[in-house]
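To fix ideas at the outset, we first show an illustrative case, written as a sequence plus integers encoding its fold:
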Amino acid sequence: MTRTHRTTARTSSEGRAVARTKTLIKGEHGTGTVRRTTLPGGLRVVTETLPAVRSVTFGIWAHVGSRDETPALNGATHYLEHLLFKGTKRRSALDISAALDAVGGEMNAFTTKEYTCYYARVLDTDLPLAVDVLSDMLTGSLIEAGEVESERGVILEEIAMTDDDPGDSVHDLFAHTMLGDTPLGRPVLGTVETVEGLTRDRIARFYKKHYDPTNLVVTAAGNVDHTKVVRMVRAAFERAGALSRTDAVPREPRSGSRTVRAAGQVDVIERRTEQAHVILGMPGIPRTDDRRWALDVLSTALGGGMSSRLFQEIREKRGLAYSVYSHTSGFADCGLFGVYAGCRPAQVQDVLKICRDELEQVAQSGLTDEEVRRAIGQLSGSTVLGLEDTGALMHRLGKGELCWGDQMSVDEMLAHIAAVTPDAVREVARDLLGQRPSLSVIGTLKDKQAARLHEAVA
């Protein structure tokens, strides 16, 4: 696949440009071609064409996440995500669900710290229905007071469900450990207190502020014709009166810089669990940092598979944990790197010592050439395999547009991964793993065990 920058403009009878289309990635034999059209009102439509499949995943992305919330609004983005399924001027909540059920489609949504996505997977022949329903939800939600109250209980149950899964909630704790009481450090779901305090009017104002077309990206991947998708989306948004601003400009990707909390932080939540769930970590890098490819290779070699260092040392050789892995999070202005393990409380000190020793050793000496080669192969293969369904491709389109303002072909991604050298991995390991770590723990620990946790970050 090759990249191209051919741009065409459609004009009205008065000669005023009304839409601009650019081919971002030129596929082979009509497959994998990615195009973007920017409509009046600043709405972007990005598609990837795959004629060989019978399905389409259609999504609408909002450039708003929990990091856009004030402390009192924590949880509003996720709350709003739920409420957009609860009815519009044209459809009840049941109508919305029944429309997709009737054609065997799947519809869902998710909220992150930096964006929200609503999507549907349908047969290619049912794409007009998916476009109509999701566009109606995004532009015409009623946000009725009664639905706000009934959905409050649902969200409180979702928070309780997350709290009952310490392997999940320890990641929220780690974000707080590293980023403190900041928008990025607070949980996406909000807390019981903030969710109970959110009112219909506050959520409605949040909706009006952040769901402007300039803040939205429409994506579709599968057996689609770009021109037809643009036509359907435009008709749906014009019906709602959402494309009236002809001078509107799409929002640029986020940028800036952010400093995480001082190193050596330790956060512990005492909870009755069979296992202790721990994350030992440190600041990472923003998602736009060119070192992200080397960091991905490093993380894969450290804890990305059964042959990784930490999996071998902690699980295979010593049997101290069932689940152990490393992970990275790249935001617009900062990043996180962490190592997770779930183990018996009595084994926490041993697990943390092994993690700290391995991180220090790699920071000082780097990885072997064989480890780098194996990690590059694993990362390359998983990248291709992970993009073999229309949902994953739709997700890539949305993230590319919101986070980078551009699209990268699979071949380009593979080239970046293949270009990572042992020296590049050693450099990023020295810069990141050489930092003093912080620690997050959820579990039942004896007083002496809890008191010794600071030794792991000394």
Summary: Residues 171 and 279 are 8 Å apart (CA to CA). The chain is about 40% helix and 20% strand. Residues 1-17 have pLDDT under 50 and may be disordered. The domain at 23-240 is CATH 3.30.830.10 (Cytochrome Bc1 Complex; Chain A, domain 1).
